[in-house]
Fold:
Amino acid sequence: MARYGIAVNTENCMECYNCFMACKDEHCGFKTAVSAPQPHTGHKWIRIESKERGNDTRKIKTSNSAVLCAHCHDAPCAKAAENGAVYTRGDGIVIIDPDKAKGQKKLVSSCPIGAIFWNEELNIPQKCTLCAHLLDDGYAMPRCAEACPNEALYFGDLDDPNSEINRVIKEGRITKIKTLGGIETNVVHLNIPTVFLAGSVYLPDDEAAEGALVTLTRKKTGDTVSVKTNYFGDWEADWLAINEDYEITISANGCLPVKFEAKTDIDRFVGETVLTPC
Structure:
């Protein structure tokens, strides 16, 4: 049997909320074979977490990541549930039984990523079902993945080594939501960024220094990252280790090298560097 999952590619998410609206369209006001109707307000069975990156208006970026039930292998909600109210299907999808879970509000706080919601009217906890009812009826994918225009949500069989979802995972950086800890999940987050350092470099005549070499050396380990400035003299090094000290060396033909240090406690624009002729 297939083990279904979703690869969430942060690099591709443009915060369009198509996934959120598709989920609402499928579940609000409609009972399915595995869930009671989702309320029209108050629930986000899939949500977009958007983060503004940068400490200076000269270099600002955003990253967006969809968060939904991770369909954990050893689900904390299943451990917290009574009477088998939470179960894992053979295909890996974790389901909250709407009848057995009645009154079990503690399941909401059992989820480490806040993916379970309380339906006050029906007195039950609810969450993403990965549209199991549609998959059982032969649909190719859940509504959220179907609605995503940018393949930020990629659905498939995780147990098939030749599946497209495994190709996507292999080509990306596997990252995790911190609060999941060491829990293995069927929703795999890719390319959640760490931290960047960035800056601008100018020649002695105040012209942009295109092609200047910027080398960042992680002081603890000696690992280096090298980038070059663009047409505007700007440079950026992303995916750096968090909370580390880096020595930055900037060099260009005909100019003296410049060295200084920066810490990766935040996404940081380190400023403008004006080179001095040799």
Observations:
- The longest helix spans residues 18-27.
- The two ends are 67 Å apart (CA to CA).
- The longest strand covers residues 46-56.
- The mean pLDDT is 97.
